[in-house]
Specification:
Structural class: alpha/beta
Helix content: 25-40%
Strand order of the largest sheet: 9-8-7-10-11-12
Largest sheet: 6 strands, parallel
Radius of gyration: 25 Å
Distance between the termini: 34 Å
Number of strands: 17
Shape: globular
Length: about 475
C-alpha cells in the first residue's frame, strides 16, 4: 500500500484503524493493488474512496484466481466494504445466492459486519469459502463476451437511474410481433409445471426454461431433455431469453434463513441478479411473478426492472378466483353470481371475496335481502375454497391461463397482483390482487369493485402490513 494514502484518506473518520487493517490485507495478499477513486452511489452521490483489486485463490475442482474489487467506505471499520467481482472480457458472471448480474457480492459476513470482530481478511476468507461452494465466474466464447459486456453496461445504467426502457433490445434476436416467446425463470417444480402447462395449451412458439441452479441438468430438466418436449429450450444463459413477450418468475431462495424477513430478503437478493438481466434482454416483456410472497416479489420486480406498472404483475389470486367461480357455478348452482365473484387482496389467510357489480333491487329492503343471500353463498364457497391447496401443477395451469390472455390480447378479466396505490384509499406502493383486464401490454384497466366497507378495511390492513414489511427490505 503506497505511503501517501495517509494524506489522501484525511476524510476517513477512523483513518489509522483503516490503514492498519489495509496493511494486513496487503501482507496476506501482496498481489492486491490500492488506489483512491470516485465511487458513485445509487442516489447519484459520489465519494473518493480507497479501493483495492486483485485475485483470490479458489479451488473448485481445479484452482482458479477470481478477480475482485473492494471499496472501503469512509466510516470503515464500522461499516462493511462494497464488494464486486471484476471479470475480464472473457469471463461471465454466474448469478447466484451471493452474486448478482452486475457482479456485486452479497455475503452473510457483510450483513453481519461488526467491528472489531469483522475484518477485511476475514471477509476475503469467507468470500473464498463461498466461491468454493459456488464458482462465481465462467469462461465465455468471444460472442458471449460481447453480450456480457453489453449486459454489464446496461445494468450499470439501471443502478445510476439512466435506464431507457423504451429502447430496443440489441441482442439481434428475432423480434417479430407474430412470434410468441415465453421465458420461465427457475427450474424447480413450479417452473417445470409452468413450462408443461404452457406447452400443453400450445400458447407459445417457443418456451425457454432458464435453469439457474449449479451443476449438470438433473431431475425435471433432464426429463424435459430426454423426452424432447416440442418448442422448449433449456438454458443457463440469460441471453436465451431475448425478445420474450412474457417472462415468468418462479425462483425462490433455498437458503438457511432463520426468520420470515430473512427468507424474503434472500429472495430479494436473488432477484437483484435476475430482474435487471431479463429486463435487458426483453425490454418490452410482461413480467409475471409467481415467486413467494407474490405481492412483495412483484413490487421488487417492478422496482428492479424500471418497467411501467402495467407490465409487472403477480399471479395473485387468479387461481383462487377461477376456483371460486367454478364452485359457485358447479357446486352451489349460483351461476348468475359466479361471473361477478372475485378473490382479491393478499394471498393466504387474508384473502377476501368481492364483487364487480352492485345489486339492483326495487327498494332498500330487497337490496339488503339480496346482499345477505349473496354473502351466505359466497361464504359457503370460500369455505370450500379453503380446503384447496396450491400445488405446483395447479399454479402452473394458472400461469398458462394468464399467459394465454396476455399473448392473445384476450382482454379477459383476471384477479392479479397489481399496483394498488389509489385504490380503496391505499396510499402506499403495494401490490394486491384486484380484477384487471389483461392484454399484450399487461394490465389494460382495473375493473371497478362494488363498494364494501369491510372489504376496503381488509385491503387497507393488508396494504399496511405489506408496506411495513417492504420497508425493512434492502433493495
Amino acid at each position: 500500500m503506497p505511503n501517501n494514502f495517509g494524506c489522501e484518506m484525511r476524510k476517513y473518520k477512523f483513518r489509522d484503524l483503516t490503514i492498519e487493517e489495509v496493511k494486513n490485507v496487503s501482507k496476506t495478499y501482496p498481489n492486491f493493488t490500492f488506489s483512491m477513486n470516485t465511487y458513485t452511489f445509487k442516489d447519484g452521490s459520489q465519494k473518493d474512496l480507497l479501493n483495492f483489486s486483485g485475485t483470490v485463490p479458489v479451488k473448485y475442482g481445479n484452482s482458479y484466481n477470481i478477480p475482485i474489487h473492494l471499496w472501503i467506505l469512509d466510516s470503515h471499520p464500522f461499516a462493511p466494504p462494497i464488494c464486486f467481482l471484476k471479470p475480464t472480457a472473457n469471463m461471465g458472471i454466474s448469478v447466484g445466492k451471493h452474486v448478482d448480474a452486475r457482479g456485486r457480492i452479497y455475503l452473510p459476513y457483510l450483513q453481519n459486519w461488526s467491528h472489531p470482530k469483522s475484518t477485511l481478511n476475514g471477509l476475503i476468507k469467507e468470500m473464498i469459502a463461498k466461491f468454493e461452494e459456488e464458482l462465481p465466474l465462467y469462461s465465455l466464447s468471444s460472442s458471449d463476451a460481447a453480450r456480457q459486456s453489453e449486459l454489464l453496461s446496461y445494468i450499470a445504467k439501471i443502478t445510476e437511474g439512466e435506464t431507457d426502457v423504451k429502447s430496443r433490445s440489441k441482442t439481434g434476436g428475432k423480434n417479430e410481433g407474430s412470434f410468441n416467446k415465453i421465458t420461465v425463470v427457475g427450474a424447480g417444480d413450479l417452473g417445470i409445471a409452468c413450462v408443461l402447462a404452457v406447452a400443453a395449451k400450445d400458447i407459445a412458439d417457443k418456451v425457454v426454461l432458464l435453469d439457474l441452479s449449479e451443476g449438470a441438468a438433473k431431475g425435471g430438466t433432464m426429463d424435459l431433455e430426454i423426452f424432447a418436449v416440442p418448442n422448449v429450450e433449456i438454458s443457463k444463459d440469460f441471453s436465451s431469453s431475448a425478445d420474450s413477450k412474457v417472462v415468468v418468475l418462479t425462483v425462490n431462495s433455498l437458503g438457511n434463513a432463520q426468520t420470515y424477513l430473512d427468507v424474503i430478503q434472500s429472495n430479494v437478493d436473488l432477484f437483484r441478479g435476475i430482474i435487471p438481466a431479463v429486463s435487458h434482454y426483453s425490454q418490452n416483456a410482461v413480467l409475471l411473478v409467481a415467486s413467494h410472497p407474490v405481492e412483495v416479489m412483484t413490487f421488487v420486480s417492478w422496482k428492479l426492472s424500471s418497467f411501467p406498472k402495467s407490465r409487472v404483475i403477480g399471479v395473485g389470486a387468479n387461481l383462487d378466483s377461477e376456483r371460486l367461480q367454478y364452485i359457485l357455478t358447479n357446486l352451489l348452482k349460483a351461476e348468475v353470481l359466479a361471473k361477478d365473484a372475485w378473490v382479491i387482496g393478499e394471498q393466504g389467510e387474508d384473502k377476501v371475496s368481492s364483487w364487480t357489480t352492485c345489486n339492483v333491487a326495487a327498494n332498500q329492503t330487497e337490496a339488503m335481502a339480496a346482499h345477505n343471500s349473496r354473502e351466505k353463498v359466497a361464504n359457503r364457497a370460500m369455505e370450500v375454497l379453503k380446503g384447496k391447496g396450491q400445488r405446483s401443477w395447479s399454479v402452473g395451469l394458472s400461469v398458462a391461463d394468464l399467459t394465454d390472455s396476455i399473448l392473445k390480447d384476450k382482454r379477459k378479466v383476471h384477479s392479479v397482483s397489481t399496483l394498488a396505490k389509489g385504490c380503496c384509499n391505499i396510499n402506499s406502493e403495494v401490490f394486491l390482487s384486484l380484477p384487471c383486464i389483461l392484454g399484450t401490454s399487461g394490465v389494460i384497466e382495473m375493473v371497478r369493485l362494488e363498494e364494501d366497507p369491510l372489504v376496503q378495511e381488509k385491503l387497507q390492513s393488508s396494504a399496511g402490513s405489506i408496506h411495513d414489511l417492504q420497508q425493512q427490505l434492502r433493495l
